[in-house]
Amino acid sequence: MKDGPSEDRRLPLFPLPDVVHFPRTELRLDVRDPRYQRLIRDIVEKDEEARCIGIVLLKPGWDHDGAGRPEIFPGGTAGRVMDAELLPNGCSSVVLHGEFRFELRREILHEPYREGVVHPVAEPWLNERDAGIVAVRGGIVDLLRRLAAELGESFPVAAEEAEQLSKGCAFEELVNCVAAQLDLPPLRKLQLLHETIPERGLSVLSILRSRQRVVDLLRPFCHLSTKSHLN
User: Is the pLDDT of residue 227 over 60?
Assistant: First the structure.
């Protein structure tokens, strides 16, 4: 959602303990909780334009048995349901596409699942040819390729995907796809989500540079891992 007027809207909320969804990325959910199976059934009955779910992060200390109404952070991403499979056992498999990030204005008392009034956050227009954007994009792509090649399966972005991201996708999509896949604590990802796209791009670049520095420092000792039987 780019700059412009945006109105509050009502969304069903799907709280998760360790997942932060980013706009312009896909998120697959396997839904087992009966309350949220009801949410999915309700959503698929709506018109396509109304099939959005607000993905929000649970605050630390949430109750593992699912009882009560655990606290959530007041911001998240609205995801449009692109595919939903209602399984014979009552569970659901859902694919969401991130549409926009939002601020949670207030929750609505509703059963069996949670709902809220959210305010979409307008994103600034970006000039993809701006020298700063071009430089950050180039740095991210270069580091993705290097880390994927050197770390292989231990790096969350595969080499093939790094190549795909380097070819023609928008800056926002590149930054958000990398942010979504990096193995970071949920609260760090939530911080990234709250940043503007240019700020998020710089943060992602900084994170990748830190990873590369660690790899460079450890490279002289990598040969020792092949001689672990001598330790």
Answer: no
Q: Tell me: the pLDDT tens digits for 57-96?
A: 999 876 655 556 889 999 999 999 999 888 877 788 899 9
Whether 95 and 81 have beta carbons less than 8 Å apart is answered as yes
Cα three-residue angle 146-185-225, rounded to 5 degrees: 45
Check if the beta carbon of residue 20 is closer than 8 Å to that of residue 63.
Answer: no
Provide the pairing of β-strand 72-86 with 92-108: antiparallel
Is 67 in a helix, a strand, or coil? coil
Residue 124 tokens read as 């600034």
The span from the first CA to the last CA of the chain, in angstroms, equals 55
Nearest to 7 by CA among 118, 123, 114, 125: 118
Q: What are the pLDDT digits (tens) for 4-43?
A: 547 899 999 999 999 999 999 999 999 888 888 888 889 9
Q: To which residue do tokens 């706009």 refer?
A: 23
Q: Are 72 and 17 in contact (CB under 8 A)?
A: no
The model's pTM? 0.88
Instruction: State the Cα–Cα distance between residues 208 and 214, nearest whole angstrom.
Output: 10
Alpha carbons 127 and 42: distance in angstroms, whole number = 39
How many CA atoms, within 13 angstroms, populate the side-chain half-sphere of residue 132?
Answer: 7
| Cis ω for the linkage preceding 112 (within 30 of 0) | yes
